[in-house]
Design goal:
Layout (H helix, E strand, L loop, with lengths): L1 H24 L26 H18 L3 H24 L14 H14 L4 H24 L8
Helix pairs in contact: 1-2, 1-3, 1-5, 2-3, 3-4, 4-5
């Protein structure tokens, strides 16, 4: 049970650290991961909200948390990076579907960024499939339920 909670917290950290870093650093180090490039359809690859500052902050925070909790620095760095890659995959798909970066896409907004790192946990930590599924479902529900509150509090830029 404790490992499930720790993995859930790591997903929250990977997702939340870029938001906190943006608040702390403002426009500094906010270069877009896609460099402003566009896909064949003329739409941005990812959009300007996916920044290198976010990738670094989310990855490092997960690495430090995993180190402190005994899961290991390398595992934490990879876990955080995979969570952020999953988020970028979601953004790429949303751009191809013509959805704005703030557009709501239930499931697509949460599952890839939770599932990719949890597959790593499944192999690396030998957690069960039930743990993988439960953490992904918990993260998805928590994200959907808490995002409107975080938006009202001025922490998130969109309510979903």
């Amino acid at each position: 049970m404790l490992i499930s909670l720790e993995l859930f917290v790591m997903l929250v950290l990977a997702n939340g650290a870029p938001v906190v870093a943006a608040r702390v650093f403002g426009r500094r180090w906010s270069a877009a991961v896609d460099g402003g490039r566009r896909w064949r359809d003329g739409r941005p690859l990812l959009g300007n909200r996916k920044t290198w500052r976010g990738v670094v902050s989310g990855t490092l925070v997960c690495g430090l948390f995993a180190l402190i909790t005994g899961m290991g620095l390398l595992f934490g760095l990879l876990f955080g990076l995979l969570g952020l890659i999953g988020d970028m995959v979601s953004s790429f798909i949303k751009r191809r579907l013509g959805l704005a970066s703030s557009g709501k896409a239930i499931g697509l907004d949460q599952i890839p960024e939770a599932l990719l790192p949890m597959v790593l946990a499944w192999f690396w930590l030998d957690v069960s499939v039930a743990v993988v599924v439960s953490v992904v479902v918990l993260f998805t529900l928590a994200n959907m339920l808490l995002s409107p509150l975080l938006y009202r509090l001025g922490i998130r830029h969109q309510p979903h």
